[in-house]
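Thread title: Can someone regenerate the structure for this chain?

I was given the following input by a collaborator and told the matching structure tokens would be attached. They weren't. Posting the sequence so someone can regenerate them.
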Amino acid sequence: MITDQEKFWTGEFGNQYIVRNQDKKLISSSTAMYAKVFARTVNVKSVLELGANIGINLIAIHGLLPSAELSALEINKKAVTALNKLPLKHVYHSSIFNNKVDYQRDFVFTRGVLIHLHPDKLQQAYQSLYNSSQKYICLAEYYSPNPVMIPYHGQDNRLFKRDFTGELLEKYPDLRLVDYGFVYHHDINFPQDDINWFLLEKN
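Best answer:
Regenerated them for you:
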């Protein structure tokens, strides 16, 4: 059964989100953030983004890892159309909850995705991330030490903050925290939306 949050992102709001997030400056600021992330990884040859939207993150990562195989999973139909125009190995039109893992990638990540999932569905999303990864998992999400719901564009139950990484570490004891960082919206050169990133590795 599709959740209210999935309906939200597959519908008109999700389509409008695509239009609002086509600023090319997002690519340069994302490149700067992921450069810090990949500086702490070794031998990443395949990447999968869960909830890729139109592929801004993957475009940035392609600039850093030009020989890596890149793939995307996305729920919004219009975004999938945009993803299919990029040089990606696979584009999966699917919810993170229906992710059918065909093979594991070296690096699997979300950015601004877990925050939009209903808390009751997070364990399923964590399983999707874990099962998809051969080595690294990266989360770039809003952080809060305690779970909290934040009104989003005037609506409730559309944005949730919590310690996603801590919950993953507790759920899967073979994961270890490699590094983490924060990108401030007042960063002079490469601002982001006060986002925290966390890099995990499977032991």
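The longest helix spans residues 25-38.
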